[in-house]
TrEMBL record:
PANTHER family: ATP-DEPENDENT RNA HELICASE DBP3
Keywords: ATP-binding, Helicase, Hydrolase, Nucleotide-binding
Family note: Belongs to the DEAD box helicase family.
Ranges of biased composition (kind: Gly residues): 326-339
Any Pfam family matching the protein: DEAD
Residues covered by region (Disordered): 290-339
Protein name: RNA helicase
Chain ranges of the Helicase ATP-binding domain: 1-94
Length: 339
């Protein structure tokens, strides 16, 4: 991790003075996790940015005096864009795949069949059992993404009790590393070398939504879509793109099923993403999208009203503002970047 690398540098265990390539994979995630200060320190330890040929080649007299910086990220939010600009040269090249003309539009892999089902929170467990029974074929594997570590364990228990005849394990940060490694090794074997026909389900938090490359995962289930309507945290659509990206890899097709409730935010963004990938948008999601937009407009209207200040009352008292009407006044005034 960036923090571990800076610790090693401070102890004198490693030198970055001759680094020619500085590569940041999952750059958006690293910034979300608060690694930017450590990344800035690492950049300071490396040679200044520039083209490799400016250092006269790997074996030239100025070898190691220039570095090339590469960002890899599936999403391109403003904070990542700003960080990339600070860490790369002014003539950095941006390569966007499936991002639209402006390059800032979130898109989903069209090789993945996406199905969104709107339901109540209490219906999720039974719907998941039905989904595994009907959709997960012999010898296929699936990843189920849940929003909390305790929920992962609960889902595993529910699936065990259901007697579905499947291999199922959970991985999250509360599990010992050897337990996670063992579960991943078994899941990988079921996915890539399955001769027994056994079905496998891995239940995980977002610890498995990035960096996990197992070609052949047949299905992804987004059990918990994302943030709640009254939450300020990120999540929702950006996490969704990463999660469904665990299937339909290496030229293969995949399926993604999403459980969406009326407590989830991001209905409008999800509907737009589905349309962009030429997927069906369910009527229930369209309805939630309209409700969400109405909620946002009301929130913005109230925010603007409080910022401007209320109108004068019906009494004869003088308001603090300069309102002209009434007898009282108002009171207030994959991106990839290389450089």
């Amino acid at each position: 991790t960036p923090g571990r690398l800076t610790d090693m540098f401070e102890r004198g265990s490693v030198s970055l003075a001759c680094i020619q390539f500085l590569i940041m994979d999952e750059a958006d995630r690293m910034l979300d996790m608060g690694f930017e200060p450590d990344i800035k320190e690492i950049v300071k330890m490396c040679p200044k940015t520039g083209k490799p040929e400016e250092g006269w080649g790997a074996d030239g007299p100025k070898a190691g005096t220039m570095r090339q910086t590469l960002f890899f990220t599936a999403t391109w939010p403003k904070d990542v864009e700003k960080s990339a600009a600070r860490m790369t040269s002014t003539d950095a090249v941006q390569v966007r795949i499936g991002q639209g003309e402006d390059g800032n539009k979130l898109t989903a892999n069209k090789s993945v069949e996406q199905v969104v089902r709107v339901m109540k929170e209490t219906q999720k467990v039974d719907r998941l059992k039905e989904l595994i029974k009907k959709e997960l074929g012999r010898g296929e594997t699936a990843i189920v993404f849940a929003g909390m570590k305790c929920r992962c364990d609960d889902i595993v228990s529910d699936l065990h009790r259901a007697g579905l005849g499947i291999w199922v394990r959970a991985i999250h940060s509360n599990k010992e590393q050897w337990v996670r490694d063992e579960a991943l090794a078994k899941f990988r074997a079921l996915t890539t070398q399955n001769r027994s026909g056994e079905r496998g389900v891995l239940v995980a938090t977002d610890v498995a939504s990035r960096g996990l490359d197992i070609p052949g995962v047949a299905m992804v289930v987004v059990y918990d879509f994302g943030r709640a309507l009254n939450s300020a945290s990120n999540g929702g659509v950006e996490s969704y793109v990463h999660r469904i990206g665990r299937t339909g890899r290496a030229g293969k097709t995949g399926r993604a099923f999403t459980f969406f409730t009326n407590e989830d935010a991001g209905a409008a963004e999800l509907a737009e993403l589905l349309r962009g990938a030429e997927q069906e948008v369910p009527k229930e999601l369209e309805a939630l999208s309209k409700e969400e937009e109405k909620f946002r407009q009301e929130k913005e209207w109230k925010k603007g009203r409080y910022a401007r200040g209320g109108g004068g009352g019906k009494g004869k008292g003088k308001g603090k503002g300069k309102g002209k009407g009434g007898k009282g006044g108002g009171s207030g005034g994959g991106y990839f970047v290389r450089g």
